[in-house]
Amino acid sequence: MTQDEMKKAAAQAALEYVESGMVVGIGTGSTANHFIDLLSSMKGKIDGTVASSIASEERLKSHGIPVMDLNDAGQLSLYVDGADESDKHLNLIKGGGGALTREKIVAGASEKFICIADDSKLVDVMGKFPLPVEVIPMARSYIAREIVKMGGQPQLREGFTTDNGNIILDVHGLEIFEPVKMEDEFNRLPGVVTVGLFARRPADVLILGATEGVKVID
Ligand SMILES: O=C(CO)[C@H](O)[C@H](O)COP(=O)(O)O
């Protein structure tokens, strides 16, 4: 099985959590794209979706799947999204696709967060994947200096602007032993919009595609 086939298998397994009449929060990235493609077979049964990025919104619409504004949707039953890394407690690093802020908002507004990934994303200690931080452009240098003081090596994601008009600093060299504490430390810095650590709102269920089949951790 290729990595992409494992992602698709995880996305297929997540479909089982979708029930009639639900409004479903939709993540961003290649695994979430598989989920969107598979969800099109159920588009008549769900009440709609809320997208976490412009790219996902466009893909949903291309399938004729209705997309709603989060402000009109109220609390969502379900959020389905990928991740860049997960530990065994389902704390996540997200934002490889740069959609971390809207992803964190939609995850926060959802009762259940199903994370879908291939099994290479499950790690003992997070941080090998550079931690994305969305930053207001005028705060770039200040935040970069603060990150160095915290022991990280920030790198500007060149040529990339988020859907919210901000920049991303990818932070290398971290070993994340206390994810909640680190999420709070980043959130305290004025100019940080969102850090891609999902520890205050981890996933509720992790579905991993693997060569030996699909594994579910909850
Ligand atoms: O956080 C994300 C986007 O901001 C994605 O969920 C994450 O980057 C995983 O992507 P993929 O499913 O392509 O491996």
From TrEMBL:
Pathway: Carbohydrate degradation; pentose phosphate pathway; D-ribose 5-phosphate from D-ribulose 5-phosphate (non-oxidative stage): step 1/1. SUPFAM superfamilies: D-ribose-5-phosphate isomerase (RpiA), lid domain (SSF75445), NagB/RpiA/CoA transferase-like (SSF100950). It holds the Pfam family Rib_5-P_isom_A. GO terms for biological process: D-ribose metabolic process; pentose-phosphate shunt, non-oxidative branch. Coiled coil: none annotated. It comes from the Bacteria. It is an enzyme of class 5 (isomerase). It catalyses: aldehydo-D-ribose 5-phosphate = D-ribulose 5-phosphate. Gene3D superfamilies: 3.30.70.260, 3.40.50.1360. GO terms for molecular function: ribose-5-phosphate isomerase activity. CDD domains: RPI_A. Its EC number is 5.3.1.6. Substrate binds at residues 28-31, 81-84, 94-97, 121. Keywords: Isomerase. GO terms for cellular component: cytosol. The active site is at 103 (proton acceptor). Catalyzes the reversible conversion of ribose-5-phosphate to ribulose 5-phosphate. Homodimer. Belongs to the ribose 5-phosphate isomerase family. This is Ribose-5-phosphate isomerase A. It comes from Cocleimonas flava.
